[in-house]
Design brief:
This protein is mainly beta. Strand 17 and strand 18 form a beta hairpin. The protein is globular. The termini are far apart.
Amino acid sequence: LNDQVVKQEVCIFNEVGNRRVLNYDFTVTPQGGVITYAQRKSAPGADSPSFTLIELYDAAGNLVVRRSAYEMRPPDWEQRDYLDQIYHPQYPNDHQAPPWKGTYKLRADQAASLTAADVVGPDGIVYPDWTHVGIPGGIPKLANTLSAADFGVLPGRDQDCSSALQHAIDALEARGGGVLFIPAGRYYLDRPILIKGDNCVLRGAGAKMTRLISRFTMRGLAPEIRDIPADGRVGPSTVISAWLDPQGITNLTLSAGGKVIKSTPLPGLWENRVQHAFAGRELLKAIGAGPTELRLSASYRDGTVRSTVRRVTLTESEIIQEHPPGPLGMINFAGTGPGSAPKLLLAADGKRGDMNLMLSLDHGLKAGDRIQIVGPDTERWNQILRTKIRNGFLRANQYEIAAVHGDRISIPEALRIEFPVVDGAYVQRFRPILHCGIEDLGFEQVVPTFVHGVVFNYGWECWACGIEVVHAGDKALYMPGSKRCEARDCVLDRSWCNDGGSAYVGWESSYDCLMGNVTVYDMRHAPVVQWASSGNVIRASVFHGSDAQWHAGWTNENLYEELIVESSQLSGSYGSGGWASGPDDTAHGPNGPRNVVYNCNITSVKTGLWLGGMNEGWLILHNRFLVGRGPAIFAKDASFDHIIQDNVFVMLEPQPTAVYLGTPDCTGIELVGNRFYGPVKVLFGGAVQPAVDRDNRVRASGGINRPQPATRSIYEWEQVHREEIWAQQSERSAR
């Protein structure tokens, strides 16, 4: 500032514009009434960040000036070269075709190729099957069972109600479930709440009437060792969690019997994780079985060390941990994942469309069991995907066994992707939490503690309805590992943390879940699906200040429908309207086949739709994209076989072309009946042209209304015709 270096910080941006927020406090004397800002490059010739927003406040906290990258950009002749480097570098042309033959771009007249996983839509396009999405019969309407007031949960006081609320929930679980009604008022929670029984519902008097106020923090406190079984025995698969103050932490050390088991250096600058976890096998490997003393020590930048001690008995025997720790929220509905359950290998490939799985005869499964099917992340698979990610969770789903016939088990829904024997595909039995919900209440975190708002971990047919979550520490509503869950009529408003991995709204490792009439403000990625999520529907919702994402891990056959997405970079999102990670992304990996964007309105400051690669057979139909700077559609690295039809693209600064296919293996892409408005000089650019270019129109201006598809909602159309669809599936499955 004023030509003086006042702060030196490393801030890494990549081609998609990952964003970090850096806040500095300085006393600066203007020179001639002016404060001059300069951002230095890290090295000669290095690129500046693709987007920057500078805000200057006075000592009273008033905004004095705001300058964006748009206002600070280079002259036009430099800008074009700069944008080409940032958005569209020269991708290698070493692959001329996708690594496998496409199977998802299907038409109604290809009857022989259709499987039980395919639905012929009213327009002749073949869609995924969404007839099993959401809670069968919808969210149930249940009568109140207990009142929280009868357990001392009282509003209007500045006292902690978490213990009384937990006592009321425990009483509800002891009855076998029901509805716990929390009357109108403000209630303060200083500790997280745990619901572990089936059929348990928390209900308020309305999101604005019943307010749960979280004050949970570990600030200034010693760590806590948690989730040790009551008898103190810790087996190989036992997961021990620790809660600690992350502010300024520089090292976390776990010792047992005086021996350091694990020592983790931490940055001490922006660390925010409250919960850490350790596995019993780490302790057994280091010191063996027997009684011992665990010591957890946290070191801080100010030189202090805070410790806690716990006596345990280590054993080589497996200990059944009823509820191992999952992601930490303030309201936790806790199912149990597969854990150490036996991995039962498939005896034959699970193919797309199959409704039967072959196992060995001694599998021990029975009708009604819930299973998770997994295709491991093998080197063979990684080489096919050309991916740099390792140990990802890419191919999975969950099913309830309908019937068992010896070594053959039947499932009620068709496989959406393949689970090959060569990769060691397997199934595991697991125990989700069933039929739980949270309704008609508001939740707010008034302390910036990095924990989620409401969590359903491994939930089946669970729901959140009519809730408002304000300033969650991380994700406002989080349902990982879930099946046929629903989020309806909710408002999710801001997060304390919008760094990487935070402030997402959508589905993670979740299957056939439904989100509708949800309004979201200032989250990082929303709507989002990631880590094997498939068959989910997010519809009829509004997302302010976030980008739509297929964020990681081979997500497939998800539907975004009738959405309004207003993308920006102000809350940590990337700035594109829709973004799908690709194989060169070492943190996320590529996304899978046949995701669908249908009848949406998407606004972006950058690219309309950014497809990072290995995305097969996506359907982009009847949408309007308002695109800032960049192309309407960008694709690379075997992003192929898409149908992009009847969309309106309003383009402010198309760079470098309206549609950019960056590598030669982006084959089989069809663009039909799309309209492009704005200063479009070149329609198609990159390494290859679309396979089909028909009836696409470019206009400088004119009518830019949203498309009006004959079928407004493909999801609702499938619900109306599901009996017919199921009959067709049964016929194809029997072939």
